User: What shape does this take?
Amino acid sequence: MSKVENKELMETIEEFVKLDEKEEKDLNKLAEIGHELDHQLLDCELIAIVNSTPEEDYNEILRLIVEDDKDSYFIPAFTDIDEAKIAIKELGISEDEMSYEFEAMTGLDILEIAIDDDNFVGIVVNPYDTDFIFPKEDLVKTAICKQEPEGC
Assistant: This one.
């Protein structure tokens, strides 16, 4: 398994969005690219924002609450530090309120953090720019098929 570069992930997202915006959608091609995106995300090294406030018993990854369902949340992942800094600014997080650090981890690492939490609904890439959502169910299926000897 080779590491997927963030540039490759972003190019595939762009390809998916262009296909999805077409009036005549090729659903098979969309499904194929969507599945490839799931693989790329799981293999990609991304940036997560982690709470490192000393009073906390453990470092907790930043979560974005779903507007219509206050119990559900996404975990934001960023393709680079600049995208993560945009999120910090947009969320209005100040160092006075919360200490945080940027932690590099794969999409699979991020998925494993919340996989057993029923309120976790997926990973969102660059939420204040690209805002591309990877649903939990799709990522779990892809993570399982990656472990199969014959692949997906």
